[in-house]
Amino acid sequence: MADAEATILPPDVHEDGSAERLQIDTIRTLSMDAVQKANSGHPGTPMALAPVGHTIWTRFLRYDPSRPDWPNRDRFVLSVGHASMLLYALIHLAGIEEIGADGEKTGKEAVSLDDIRQFRQLSSKTPGHPEYRHTTGVETTTGPLGAGCSNSVGMAIAERWLAARYNKPGLTLFDHDVYTLCGDGDMMEGVTSEAASLAGHLKLSNLCWIYDSNTISIEGHTSLAFIEDTGKRFEGYGWQVIHVDDANDTAALAAALDTFRATDDRPTFIVVKSVIGWGSPKANTEKAHGEALGEEAVAKTKEAYGWPADKQFYIPDGVKDAVGGAIAGRGQPLREAWEATLARYRTEQPDLAAELELMLADRLPEGWIDALPVFEPDEKGIASRDSGGKVLNALAKKIPWLIGGSADLSPSTKTDIKGADSFEASNYGGRNFHFGVREHGMGGVVNGMALSHVRSYGSTFLVFLDYMRAPVRLSAIMEIGSIWVYTHDSIGVGEDGPTHQPIEHLATLRAVPGLDTIRPGDANEVSWAWRAALEAGDHPTALILSRQALPTLDRGKYASAEGVLKGAYVLADSDEPEIILIATGSELSLAVKAHEQLKADGKRSRVVSMPSWYRFEKQDRAYRDSVLPPACKARLAIEMAGEMGWDRYVGSHGDTITMSTFGASAPLAKLADKYGFTPDQVTDKAKTLIAEAESTDKE
Q: Of 11, 292, 499, 577, which is least packed with CB atoms within 10 Å of its CB?
């Protein structure tokens, strides 16, 4: 690695004395100073991409800083989230106004100069990687490479769907574009390839990725692991590919972006050559990827810029007005014209206008709950994937912006909306999405759609959560209402064997803070689970559904499935129960059978249905103790999944019937017998626990 001085001194091409260059250098020096003060972060990419970010924001981005929630604004996604100071500097110079948690403006700057001084510090608005909801002007949480790329595809898809549904002749409400800055790391991540392939297939001409091809990664030159011609790869995906040889050549970049704006049949991929830590491919540098430059190097760089070397966080007179004026000067008239169009729309399309208002406010249509199906008792029952499909279709009739699909598995996950078209390049109004065998990409796209206010869902088999945990986690961090539908939820998959039988996956989902994981035990619990998911616009929900049929319980005999909303409830009871049987999903009916068998044998048991640990933990202590009374020490949890986590509910005197190994390939009945999931085995285990509790009491 070169020393700091040799690394950072810029090429002669830099200093042209223009106002544009002054604004670009302000972005660079703010980034250097913030990283230096924090002694943490990545100054190189913000410095290299400052001309790119400046060009997009000041000359192309349709954005009103006074209304950063304008629905038809262009989206800017920084997939290279480690370059967060580039975005924070742009937000500050643009003069974006902050929107509070209540959706109202606070009267403050979204990112002030003091916020930039507090880069990467506790409780600051400028965390190490951009976070949605945390900082106004940040469109999505990025950091894990490739995440922003896949989110941007979802945003572009959402724009196309919104335009197809709501735009009318002479009344255009949605025509915004999505700009994404990405880098070599993004190009290496598989999720980027999945998302790019889908975007090319769908011909998303409102999507532009600007690829910072600087050939540097943390370990060194990208030739260590990455030598492909990325442009040719994207041509193969069906993208338009444009090359810009120097990141400082803003005229060439603007010409490329003009070409993007004029293209209407495919997404655009702009390959920009830069050198990390400066921006020009003529510079000889490998430094500044992930560390502060050092005070001496910062001072010498500022001197090379013609900058006061002794000033930190310096913004020359006129720079902020010029940047903010350029953005607002273009964006504010466009936003005002849009609002005038919306006013006409309310008059000419009142029903659609009312629908749109609900959607943008993250509310649901009046009476939607009435559409939830009620299922009659049925001993044979129905698989919860099938009842889930029935519930989804009933709700889809009431909620037009409930849209989604699967990773090539909708015939199995039952997530098709009946009678609705597929979303395709030839029909952007379709509600059924075909993500292909791209679980990770699907997750990122669903999140991007949710960020545009549609109620989006993605589905696959629970075991394939392994391929998409990252977007599920990010949906929880962002507190968005993505809905994850996972079917084939246990060893009930049977003959497909251990590769398709999830064991540890429920524990994985339950470990994600802010994610509501619901495993309903019969068809009526499925209805309430879907209600819970749709009412929760401020956090994601994972619905865990079975392939095999589950008996539909008699709710006249047993408690109402409404208890799903509290996470756990007493389904069946006895006076002063000697043991509590706790179950979820397909094992709920098993617990009920054991309860009835224990009753016939003179034993007193309680059955607790616990579909959602997340919701149960949000109840007050009095309610939780009413469901799981501390005095009853004998407790047995029954679930065809790993044991991890159940100790908090069964306690030191309880036990579980769970999976401690992977499954096996065999018919379900054989597997149930092998692993202890039969009424007789549950009953015997319960009696043993009752006896142990009695023995302990006597001692």
A: 499
